[in-house]
Specification:
The complex is a heterodimer.
Chain A lengths: L3 E4 L2 E4 L4 E8 L5 E7 L6 E7 L2 E5 L6 E7 L2 E7 L7 E8 L8 E3 L3 E5 L1
Parallel strand pairs in A: 2-11
Antiparallel strand pairs in A: 1-3, 3-8, 4-5, 4-9, 5-6, 7-8, 9-10, 9-11
Chain B lengths: L3 E3 L4 E4 L4 E7 L6 E7 L6 E7 L2 E5 L2 E6 L4 E6 L8 E8 L8 E2 L3 E6 L1
């Protein structure tokens, strides 16, 4: 089973709202990722967690706050977003070590900021 | 110059055609090469994964990596309308913490 799940599928929020995106995997992967994808563009890396510790932050604005409560869960907390933050937010996971460099993506959360 | 170059298309072919998708790259340290398929408004789905140089075949799909030329290809035989999607090449170096470098994606349309 190579499934990464994400909730919610769609989210509409105002610029003063606080919301969270959730990602879950049960493949025993120890690296998890958040990406942002705009229309007709490739995914753009935001954060990487390795063994539940933040290992990469691609200079993402502080209105995005990641959290990794355990090895299966990844959250992205959103606060005071801007309309330009509207995008597809993708979670991915990877089995670290050996030849396990393959990342598996979830279906994404489509976010609209009004 | 981007680290990974991929023709964005769009590419339109008739059903049954052989499709060739390509990426070139500049970083000789890349060791892992992937092709993802992404349907409209969905997450990328891993199609093919190759480590270092060589060919890999899976059904109608063949991935080729030529590290000496820094060139990777994905061939789709007997293309079907259900293959219509955006195809993203991606590559990484083990020492980058699994960070993937993507091409721009090629939009493919297979017409019945």
């Amino acid at each position: 089973d190579t499934e990464v799940t994400q909730t919610p599928k769609h989210l509409v929020m105002g610029m003063t709202n606080k919301k969270s995106l959730k990602c879950e995997q049960h493949m025993g992967h120890r690296a998890m990722y958040w990406y942002k994808q705009k229309a007709k563009k490739p995914p753009e890396l935001m954060f990487v967690y390795s063994y539940e510790k933040l290992s990469i932050n691609e200079s993402v604005p502080s209105r995005f706050s990641p959290e990794c409560p355990n090895s299966s869960l990844l959250n992205l907390h959103l606060h005071a977003l801007q309309p330009e933050d509207s995008a597809l937010y993708l979670c991915a996971s990877r089995l670290t070590g050996g030849l396990g460099e393959t990342q598996y993506f979830g279906p994404g959360t489509r976010l609209l900021v009004l | 110059q981007k680290e990974v170059e991929q023709d964005p298309g769009p590419l339109s072919v008739p059903e049954g055609a052989i499709v060739s998708l390509n990426c070139t790259y500049s970083n000789s340290a890349f060791q892992y090469f992937m092709w993802y398929r992404q349907y409209s408004r969905k997450g990328p789905e891993l199609l093919m994964y190759t480590y270092s140089s060589g060919n890999k075949e899976d059904g109608r799909f063949t991935a080729q990596v030529d590290k000496s030329s820094k060139y990777i290809s994905l061939f789709i035989r007997d293309s079907q309308p259900s293959d219509s999607a955006t195809y993203l090449c991606a590559m990484s170096n083990y020492n980058q913490g699994g960070k993937l470098i993507f091409g721009q994606g090629t939009e493919l349309s297979v017409k019945p």
